[in-house]
Each structure stands twice: as structure tokens, then as C-alpha cells.
Amino acid sequence: MTAVDERGMAKYLDEIEPPEGVKAELLRGVIVMMASPDLVHNLIVLHTQRQIPLERWYPLQTQDVGIVGEESMPVPDLVVAAPDVLPAAGRLLPSQLVTAVVEIVSKSSVHQDYVVKRSIYAAGGIPTYLVIDPIMAQCVLLTKPAGQGEDADYHAQEIIKFGEPVPMDDLGLELDTSEFGTLPDVRPHRYP
């Protein structure tokens, strides 16, 4: 295991079986469970995944990421890695093999996606973190990770409204956001 886990929460997480349709992940020593996503979420994942060229990148869903020095095993909505760096098997993909992670915000994941995971992914040195936010109809592109632990952060941040292309330089592509839907009747938030 690559994550620091003094309380044994990772072992506990391995042993529990969440109900069908529930995702469980370890974020800074806290087990967080999320219900099945909204259709808007799933369609954004689909539209994003289809734009990533499989000959250069594998966009993986439900892939646990291990981060050295972190008591965390996040499960991003999409993990993007080069096919030639992937291990033959295993549940935990080391963060140093990951080029990009994508999270789609839901009304219950706003704080985790914008604050907690931002710091965790930066601590893992993941070059690109893309937050797709159907509440605010925007994408937040985070690059240039630096720091350790809770002080880790991304030094570059760009906010792009839905309908505008997102320059995913580390993947060598521009992400078309024109097909991304929004969540109706959800109160706006103040992030990032």
C-alpha cells in the first residue's frame, strides 16, 4: 500500500462492502460514501471519456489512486494515464503514474472536490486536476502541483465556462464542453 494509514482505515475500507451503487473512498483518514450519480454526471463522464484518444491515454473509471504520504485512497470520476505505464493488475494505482484526474461536482461533493481532493491530488503530484462543475456550468483546470499534505495546492488555476474549450495541455487536447449539462434547482456555491 502506498498511502500512509496509521489508523488502519484503508484495511477497513477493503473489508466493507458498500451497498450497490455506492462509492466509498478514503480522504485524509475519513471514509466518504457517495450515492449513485445523477444522469447529468454520467453523461459528462461519457462526453469527456470519448474525447480522450485511447491510442495515447486510458481514461479509467472507478480506479483507486494511492498517494505516498497521504491517508487517502480517492476514487476520481476519471483517472487518465498512459497505457505503457499501467501495471498489469492491482486495485491501487500510484499517483506518480497518473497524468490527470477528473471530478464532476455534485451537490453533496462540492467541498470534497474543490478543497479536500484539490490538496490530496496536488500532494500526489498529479499534473492536471480538472473539476467539472454542472452546478456553476464551469470547469476549473488546475495544474502545477506543489507542496505536501494539507498545504499542497495547484499553482495554476483557470476557470472555463461550459461551451468554451478546456486546454488540457498535459494530454495534448482541447476538451469540448458544449455537450455538458447542468444540474437544475441546485443552489450555487462560492467555490473555487
Concise description?
This protein is α+β, with helices and mostly antiparallel strands. It is built from three helices and twelve strands, in the order H-E-E-H-E-E-E-E-E-H-E-E-E-E-E.
SSE layout:
Elements: H1 9-15, E1 23-27, E2 30-34, H2 39-50, E3 58-60, E4 64-66, E5 78-81, E6 92-94, E7 100-104, H3 110-123, E8 128-133, E9 138-146, E10 153-161, E11 166-168, E12 173-175
Parallel strand pairs: 4-6, 7-8
Antiparallel strand pairs: 1-2, 3-5, 5-7, 8-9, 9-10, 11-12
Distance between the termini: 31 Å
In DSSP terms, counting alpha (H) and pi (I) runs of 4 or more, how many helices?
Answer: 3
Please bin the fraction of helical residues.
Answer: 10-25%
Beta-strand residue fraction: 25-35%
Largest sheet: 6 strands, mixed
Query: For this structure, what is the CATH class?
Result: Alpha Beta
CATH level-4 homologous superfamily: tt1808, chain A
| Structural class category | alpha+beta
**CATH topology annotation:** tt1808, chain A
Low-confidence stretches are 1-7
- Number of domains in the coordinates? 1
Quick check: average pLDDT?
89
Number of strands: 12
Describe it for me?
This protein has 192 residues and is of the alpha+beta class. The protein has a single domain, classed as tt1808, chain A, CATH 3.90.1570.10. The chain has three helices and twelve strands, in the order H-E-E-H-E-E-E-E-E-H-E-E-E-E-E. The chain has helices at 9-15, 39-50, 110-123; strands spanning 23-27, 30-34, 58-60, 64-66, 78-81, 92-94, 100-104, 128-133, 138-146, 153-161, 166-168, 173-175. The strands form four sheets. A six-stranded mixed β-sheet has the order 3-5-7-8-9-10. It has a two-stranded antiparallel sheet with strand order 1-2. Strand 8 and strand 9 (138-146) form a beta hairpin. The longest helix is centred in the middle third of the chain and has 14 residues, at 110-123. The N and C termini lie far apart (31 Å). The model is unreliable at 1-7 (pLDDT under 50).
